Every structure is written in C-alpha cells, then in structure tokens.
Amino acid sequence: MPDTLDRGEAPGDGSEAAGLDAETFAQLLDTVARFVRERLAPLEAKVAEEDAVPAEIVGEMRALGLFGLSIPQEYGGLGLTMEEEVRVGMELGRTSAAFRSVFGTNVGIGSQGLVMDGTDEQKRKYLPRIASGEIVTSFALTEPEAGSDAASLRTTAKKDGDHYVLNGTKRFITNAPEADLFTVMARTGAPGSGAGGVTAFAVEASTPGISVGPWDKKMGQQGAHTADVIFEDARVPADAVIGGVEGQGFKTAMKVLDRGRLHISSVCVGMAERLIADSLAYARERKQFGQAISGFQLVQAMLADSRTEAYAARSMLLDAARRRDRGENVATEAACCKYYASEMVGRVADRAVQIHGGAGYMAEYGVERFYRDVRLFRIYEGTSQIQQLVIARNMLREAE
Asked: What's the Cα-to-Cα distance from 239 to each of 162, 306, 356, rounded to whole Å?
C-alpha cells in the first residue's frame, strides 16, 4: 500500500485507453452493478468473518473481465478510459472494499508500470495473463522506513553478470499473499543516490529467495490481504528491469499514481453513496417519539450534508478523469480528488453510524464494518497529508 510523494509527472505516458463504445460500456456498467447487488453484497459479512473472498467469486470476476479493466485491448483487457474506469469503480465501491481489492492491483499499481513503461516483450509476456486474472500482481514499494519518502528506499539490486541480486524487505504490500508477479522498486544506485538510483523490476513470485510473511491483522478490510515481502539474495534476470533502463523506477512509480488516486477516489464515492442509501432507508424505518427519525431535522441535516459532499466528490472526480483522458497533466487534480473523497467518505461513514444510533455500533448492520474499512482510504495511495503537500507544491511550482 504505497503512500508516495508525487512529483507531478507530465501526461503522455503511453497509457491512454481507447475505451468502449457507449452501448457496450452501458452493458458493462449494468452488469457490474447487478454483480455487486446480487452476488457481492450478500456475502459481505461472510467475507469479513472468514477474511477471504470465495474462490467462485474470484472466478466470476475473471469472467467479467474485472482484472483487465485498464489493460489495453490489444493485450486482452477492456482498455477503459479513465472516465469509464472511475464510473465502474463507483459501482464497485457500493460493497465491501475487499472485493475490489482482489483485482485492484491488476487494474492499477500492479500493472500500470508495465503498461506505461514496459518493453514490448514485457508487455506481451505479462499483460494478457494479468488481464485474464491468471496472474495476480502486487506493487512492492513501501518499506519499514520508506513510504511517502519513497526515494529513500533501502532494498538493493546489485548487478551480477546478466542478473540482479535483490535484498530487502517490503511492508504492507497489498495482495502479496496471492501475488504471482511483483513490481519491485529497488536501489541500483549508490546509497544516497535518491530518486535517480531507483529501478523498477517485474519479479515473479516463484523466484528463489522471495518469501511472504503472514497476513497483517488490520483494523478493517478483512478479505483484502497485505503482508511483508522479503528478498534474500533473490536473483532476477536483467531483462526484468521494467523498460530495460536503470534509474527510471521512481518516475515509473510516480506515473501510476494519478490513475491510482482517481481509481481509489471512485471507490470512496461509491462507498459513500452506499452508506447514504443505507442511512436513508434506516431513517425512514426507525421510529422514535412516535415518528420515523427521518422527520427530525438534525437527522435530515446529516443526510443532506452527506449527499452534498458525495455529489461534490463525484463531480470533481469525473472532471479530473475527463481531463486525464484529454491528455492533460492531472497530478494536482488527482491529489485533490484523493484528498477530498477519502476524507469525505470518512465523514459520511461517521454520520451513518450516528444515524443508526446503537444499531450502527453493532456488527449485524454492517455500518460499523464500513466505518472501519473506509479509514484506510486516507492512508494508502498517499496519505491526506501527502496529498496536501502535492497540491500546494504544484500550486507554487505553477506560480513561478
């Protein structure tokens, strides 16, 4: 779960998608909405209790093409535009975050380094299997002492003939227990070489010398697994360097963040809308003082505030996505969306608990689970504080 300081990469990274025709996309959106409503939502409590998404559900996700939403069509993916992807993300957000996390790294940070900067050979080798879900990807950047300060990472990759030898530990790595392929950021330059000494590698999980720690026990998002990944003299062929060029890893990492931040923002919007719908339904049914609590103005105020903030997040997200599809640099807008949407869904979840009262604190209603789940959105893919720094620094840079 990287939380990395963005440096405002320019557009034109080669990841622009063609998208689907309007009718096909409408069918996809309807199919995803029904899948969420009929298959995923009824399993939310089961997934939380068992800390696992059922294998048959993962198979259905593969069949729907969810693992390849952002993979170009020439490699077997759906090749969605950014606007299409966030609209799908909003539908997926209307259920437990664990379901989306199953394929989230394939759609985002686990695959986009290859899509944007990979060699033709690397793309042909991996992208079709990533798009089909045959390969589960994982993005290994964060370390015990390097997260937002990604340029200070300590995992090393030493050249040894036609191989590199990797040593180091990565932490909080999403989907690491299930991963078949890691995008690994490692230092090929000398200690203290900063961002320019970081190289990106596509490393197969079966490589000798790689081990994955036990699943982390988290506050929420049960069913979405994170763990440490340890590299001990793991020998990786030289052709595993993404793009075939040393020292470009930090730039690759930064490039994937705009898309990743917009995608996470879409999930935040979807979860907020789900919580609002549940809160409205409960307020209309729950009676106090002889009437439904939806008739009380202070309850109405909480519903109104939630609806207003969710609408604002949806609107700014769609605007940023469309700008990115036009080829604009949306580093600032993506940070704005991630910052606002993740903070917004936290406020909505808090109000949802309050509207449900004592029931909101009880596991059987599910609101308390969402309350815990959404807390993570303010941390990964860049903390809220990192987003503030990105926004302000870009503003100052643009004013020069």
From this structure: 8, 50, 55
Q: Are residues 56 and 147 in the same domain?
A: no
Count: domains in the chain: 3
Q: Point out the domain boundary residue: 79, 108, 136.
A: 136
Domain boundary among 106, 136, 166: 136
3 state DSSP class of 234:
strand
* Continuous H helices in 39-111: 44-50, 55-64, 82-92, 97-107
Same domain, 258 and 295: yes
Strand stretches in the chain, DSSP E: 137-140, 156-160, 163-174, 181-187, 198-204, 210-212, 226-237, 287-288, 291-292
Residues 263 and 392 in one domain: yes
Residue with tokens 């392929």: 181
Q: Say whether pLDDT at 335 is over 60.
A: yes
The pLDDT value given to residue 17: 63
Range of the domain at 389: 251-399
Residues forming beta bridges with residue 156, ordered by sequence position = 167, 187
Rounded CA gap, 199 and 186, in Å? 6
Based on the residue annotation, tell me whether 91 is a catalytic residue of this protein.
no
pLDDT in tens, 140-169: 999 998 777 767 889 999 999 999 999 999
What's this model's pTM, rounded to 2 decimal places? 0.92
pLDDT tens-digit profile of 270-286? 999 999 999 999 999 99
Residues 260, 243, single domain; the answer is no
Q: Which of 83, 134, 381, 400 is catalytic?
A: 381
Residue 340 reports pLDDT greater than 50:
yes
Alpha-carbon distance 127 to 96, whole Å? Answer: 27
Reported as a pLDDT band with limits 50, 70 and 90, residue 250 is: confident
The average confidence (pLDDT) of the chain is: 93
Query: What CATH number is given to the structural domain containing 284?
Result: 1.20.140.10
List of residues 6+ apart from 266 with CB closer than 8 A = 85, 86, 87, 88, 89, 90, 92, 93, 317, 341
Give the contacts of 145 (CB within 8 A, at least 6 positions apart).
152, 154
pLDDT-based confidence at residue 12 (cuts at 50, 70, 90):
very low
